[in-house]
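Re: that backbone. Tokens:
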């Protein structure tokens, strides 16, 4: 105190504080450098939604609503609550029976009558998974220019939301196809998030 040669004077102190604050603001901005033609984009994922529309999903054993109606409501909530972003790409797959993503979800319901070869009494989970990854492969092959040597690659920007009550056949043939489909899913890095719809007590299918 009172020295004619202070280590840090008042001017130097404020200058040092200004530099520190500037560096802090720069670090908070998280700057990055773009090299060549590379670009960076935050967000933007491919989300596949598979909905079980088999007869067991028509049962109204949860709050007076059918399991299918609940699944459709929760899917629509993904968009309404802002979970899905404009840059995300959506695909809807319906299995277990015989546009725009949001409009398509709104049309998923049990048929008024069963006609022709409609057979909704089993949820073919294996067929659903096969259809999902093959459809994504077709899309990727098209984007790549349909090269003859094209092979699926492992990606980290895709996921599958599987809505079902889990009421499906467990025959050896079906389980083998399911294991093969899951192996192909792992090869492509497609994450699966299953969402179960139903109640513990359940209902008899004769009610539908």
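Recovered sequence:
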């Amino acid at each position: 105190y009172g020295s004619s040669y202070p280590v840090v004077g008042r001017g130097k102190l404020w200058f040092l504080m200004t530099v520190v604050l500037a560096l802090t603001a720069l670090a908070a901005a998280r700057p990055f450098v773009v090299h060549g033609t590379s670009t960076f984009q935050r967000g933007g994922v491919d989300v596949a939604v598979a909905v079980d529309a088999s007869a067991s999903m028509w049962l109204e054993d949860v709050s007076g609503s059918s399991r299918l109606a609940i699944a459709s409501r929760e899917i629509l909530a993904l968009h309404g609550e802002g979970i899905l972003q404009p840059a995300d790409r959506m695909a809807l797959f319906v299995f277990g029976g015989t546009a725009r993503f949001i409009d398509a979800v709104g049309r998923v319901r049990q048929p008024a009558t069963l006609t022709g070869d409609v057979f909704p009494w089993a949820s073919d989970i294996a067929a659903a998974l096969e259809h999902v990854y093959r459809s994504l492969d077709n899309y990727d092959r098209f984007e790549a220019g349909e090269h003859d040597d094209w092979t699926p690659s492992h990606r980290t920007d895709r996921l599958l939301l599987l809505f079902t009550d889990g009421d499906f056949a467990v025959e050896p043939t079906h389980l083998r196809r399911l294991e093969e489909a899951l192996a192909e899913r792992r090869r492509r890095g497609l994450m699966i998030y299953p969402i179960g719809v139903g109640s513990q007590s359940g209902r008899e299918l004769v009610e539908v």
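Helices lie at 10-28, 67-80, 101-106, 125-143, 172-188. The beta strands are 46-52, 89-95, 158-164, 191-196.
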